[in-house]
Design a protein that fits this description.
Blueprint lengths: L1 E5 L6 E5 L8 E5 L4 H10 L3 E4 L2 E5 H8 L7 H15 L8 E7 L3
Parallel strand pairs: 1-3, 3-6
Antiparallel strand pairs: 1-2, 4-5, 5-6
Amino acid sequence: MFVQVDLRSTPPIVSLEESADTKQFHVAVVGGSDAGLVYGALVDAAAGRLEGEDAWITVDAVRRMASGRVGPEWDDDFAAMLEFARGKGWLDEAGHAIKAHVEWPG
């Protein structure tokens, strides 16, 4: 799954794509490369924040955006993803946000 930040819209749209795939996680930006707009879009959507080269996406936001779009097994799969992320240092100490690589348009 990945969080998409679409800068082609005003205001930008933040969405969760490929939500059933818990084996990958990143942020994909489309429609521009303005870091300020991406930061603002993530904050305005209560999804997280941009920090340096990465984004921190809240666990609550992922759950909220996945709601109604995934099957009952998703909760267990997502929990396993979070444990994997914790082991790699990609989950903040409180367990509230996931570190994600940001893919910018090329």
